[in-house]
Design goal:
It is a single chain. By secondary structure, this protein is mostly helical. The protein has one domain. About 70% of the residues lie in helices and about 0% in strands. The longest helix is centred in the middle third of the chain and has 27 residues. The N and C termini lie far apart (about 50 Å).
């Protein structure tokens, strides 16, 4: 893995658990709420 794309960066566990996953979860919840509001 010597040649790596400079635009790509590995995520640490801390980034995943404290930042990326909570944001993704919130985004999914908002989409679900929007869909349920629109369907009723």
């Amino acid at each position: 893995m010597e040649t790596v794309d400079p635009m790509y960066s590995l995520l640490s566990r801390r980034q995943l658990t404290c930042d990326k996953l909570p944001k993704l979860y919130d985004k999914m919840i908002m989409k679900l709420k929007l869909n349920t509001d629109l369907s009723t």
